[in-house]
Amino acid sequence: MTTLLLINAGSSSLKWQLMQLPEAQPLAHGQVERLNLPDSIVKVVVDGVKTKLTVPQLDEVGAINDVLHRLVAMAIIPSLSAIDAVGHRVVAGGTVFQQAIRLTDDRLLALQELSELAPLHNPLEVRCIELLMASLPGVPQYAVFDSAYFHDLPEETAIYGIPYDWSRDFQIRRYGEHGISHRYLAQQAALELGRPLDTLNLITLHLGSGASITAVKQGRPIDTSMGLTPVTGLLMGTRSGNVDPSLVPYLMKRLNLATPEEVIMRLNTESGLLGVSGISSDMRDLHEAAATNARAALALEMFITQVVKLVGAYYVELGGADALIFAGGIGEKDELIRQAVIDRLAVLGIRLDRELNVAGEAGRLSAADSAAEVLLLPTNEELAMAREIQEVITSELDLV
Question: In this entry, which stretches build a coiled coil (predicted)?
Answer without folding.
Answer: none
